[in-house]
Amino acid sequence: MRKTYHGSCHCGLARFEVIADIDHVRVCDCSVCRKRGALGFRVDGADLIFHTPLSRLSLYQWGSFTAEDYFCPVCGVLPFRRPAHPTPAELSRGVARFEGWTINVRCLNGINTAELPRTLIRGSQL
Prior knowledge:
This protein is mainly β. The chain is about 10% helix and about 35% strand.
């Protein structure tokens, strides 16, 4: 069931809301996600409401420079990101382009991440 979740980074500078039916989390094994430890869930852009302008956050890009990782410049927590675009090889295999956002479920209030099923994303193999 879709519901509204309120979220923020650790210090509260990056605040947002998301409307979603969070039934799983995505765990990516790429080098940056392993170190970050975020638990992701993808949402359409219309379902993510920013209470802090993106211009107040820091942007990190690496690899193909198509993903946009936004994190708090004060506490360093990443509350959400725009996923990378599929590679030409992935597109040829039929992988669809995703235009939404990935939220870090660990940044949401009132959700028990231990109860959510986990889906492994093999980002290390891209």
